[in-house]
Amino acid sequence: MCLIDGQDGHVAEYICAVCCSLVDAPLLTTCHHIFCMACLQQWLDEKPSCPTCSVEIDPRHGAGDLRLASPLAWRVLGRLRVRCPLTGCGWTGEYSELMSHMTSSTSHQGTATAPRTGTASSPSSASAAASGAAAADMSSALQQAEALSAAAKSKFEQRVYRDALTLYSKAVSLAPSVPTYLLNRAAVHFMLAAYGDAIADCHAALALDPRLVKAYRRLSKAHIERGEFEKARDTLRAAAAADEANARELAPDLATASQLAEWQAEGEAAMSQHEHSVARAFFANVCGKTSAARSRLSMVRAELALGLCDRALRTCSDVIKADGNAAEAYVLRAVALMYSSDLDQARKHLREALRLDPDHPEGGRALKRVKKLEQHLSAGKAAFNARDFESARVAFSAALDAADAPQHAPLSASLHAERAAAQLRLKEYDAALHDAAVAIYANDDCISAWVTKAAALQALGRHEQALRELEPIMGSLGHESRISGAYSRAKFEVRKAKRPDYYGLLHVPSIASTLEIKGAYKARALECHPDKHAESEQARTRAEAAFKLLGEALEMLSDDFKRKLWDEGYDKEAVDERVRAAERAAREEPRGHHHHHH
């Protein structure tokens, strides 16, 4: 665009140092210089520093839209006086008005007409003059269209696609028979993800010139982004068949479209065979080449079938952001939310899906499923809290049936863990262990399942196994009091099981009095004395061990404090530790009191 002279004062600020023209789509750098968007991005690809002052610039966050970064500078730029860049147009005005002038329906309508003669002329010469005027109008319109197209190209390069679209549309309306403008507008539509409009422009360009390779290329790319791989392939096949020269040029595009169509079909076939991992691999290949919603949602279906919710949730969000009317994406996101145990959000998403498409069969079915699941789940929890464990188990089983969730889904983990807890209370230990194992397989951080598993193993007397199972997760979940508590209990039971039976050694019941214990000790000590078993080295060693144990039994059971701890299940080491702790506390007590009186 042409600046009007005499504004030197502040124009220099707005001349891009890369292209030396007035800035287009201006960006303001952190070091306060202004550049065209495309110029700066190209420059930063080469070297990440300011073209004016060489300060280092972060290519991602080092520059912002001038309009937002400095509204005042943006207003000053808008006030600069400019001329219209189109030849033969005498318009001058402010920079901020230039775009609306260039695209208004009244400007540039082919005003340069051939001069008329003043004398009356014969009919034949009048018609010749008229056709001459029409030809002049025509050539002027083409010139204007060409100038608009050049301006649009510059906007396209600056990635200001909305402006580029407006300018190309004006060029198309001035010169509807030039396929290039249609083709270029198709490229803008493509960048704006308006793939249907891009396809329409490509068809219009091909109607004017059926041999345009670029149009076929763009057409197939737009079909691919709409997930219409078969259409892209068939269009390219037909074009290649119609023209041998085109066939060579279109070969790579045809190969890509065919490959995508094949991968998508293979993935869908694998899904129908329930080979979800295989399907996921095919869809991942497709998604590597296109961001078509069809393939991304196919990928989501495969991931949900495998119980992988996090990626599925993110992908559905992206698809919904790109197209707020994608009912299928809402349904699949709802299923992912349900599998993640977020039933409330799942219900909201399904309502939105059915608002967008009231007849969506999957949406209706999924909503029924979520409501059923909620009913069973709340019934199960209420019964469990009321200690009606049989009803709780029945309700959780019904919830599992209603959910029909894949094994790896968090929902599967939580429902199995809930049922396992009910089975533990019903003393159905093997069933509880089975459900807890399923829950842990689905989610190895499922704390309640670990706690139930340990409790069931202990109820079955398998204390060492309980300890073995809990040991590896102490690192990751040991901070959880329920886990550390279960671990301490298991450790305690293992040590308890390894203790000698002091009452059995003394041949007394566990309710014997201290007097009875001392009497029993005397009798047994006489029997076990090593001097009485001197017939062999072996016999003597055995007797010494038994005699030592009897001494321990007497010491433990004739002291009220120690005996109480022993009866609670502590082993000798733990009892001794507690006795020492009690003695330490007793020694420190008077000091504390003494200090207190001061």
Describe the structure.
The protein is mainly alpha-helical. Among the domains are: 2-101, Herpes Virus-1, CATH 3.30.40.10; 511-597, Orthogonal Bundle (Helix Hairpins), CATH 1.10.287.110. The protein has 30 helices and six strands. The protein has helices spanning 8-11, 37-46, 66-69, 71-79, 95-103, 123-157, 161-174, 179-191, 195-208, 213-225, 229-242, 244-272, 276-289, 293-305, 309-322, 327-339, 343-356, 361-385, 389-403, 410-425, 429-442, 447-459, 463-470, 474-477, 481-497, 502-506, 514-528, 537-557, 560-568, 572-597; strands at 2-3, 26-29, 34-36, 63-65, 81-83, 92-94. Strands 1-5-6 form a three-stranded antiparallel beta sheet. It has a three-stranded antiparallel beta sheet with strand order 3-2-4. A hairpin with a 4-residue loop joins strand 2 (26-29) and strand 3. Helix 7 runs antiparallel to helix 8 (179-191). It is elongated and about 145 Å long. It starts with a strand and ends with a helix. Mean pLDDT is 87; it is low at 110-121.
Q: How many β-strand runs?
A: 6
Low-confidence stretches: 110-121
Shape estimate: elongated
Q: In the CATH hierarchy, what is the class of the domain at 2-101?
A: Alpha Beta
User: Compute the gyration radius: what is it?
Assistant: 42 Å
Q: Architecture of the domain at 2-101, according to CATH? A: 2-Layer Sandwich
Structural class: mainly alpha
Helix percentage range: over 70%
**What would the CATH topology of the domain at 2-101 be?**
Herpes Virus-1
Largest beta sheet: what is the strand line-up?
1-5-6
Number of helices: 30
What is the H level of CATH, i.e. the homologous superfamily of the domain at 2-101?
Zinc/RING finger domain, C3HC4 (zinc finger)
Output mean pLDDT. 87
Percent strand = under 5%
Largest sheet: 3 strands, antiparallel
How far is the N terminus from the C terminus? 92 Å
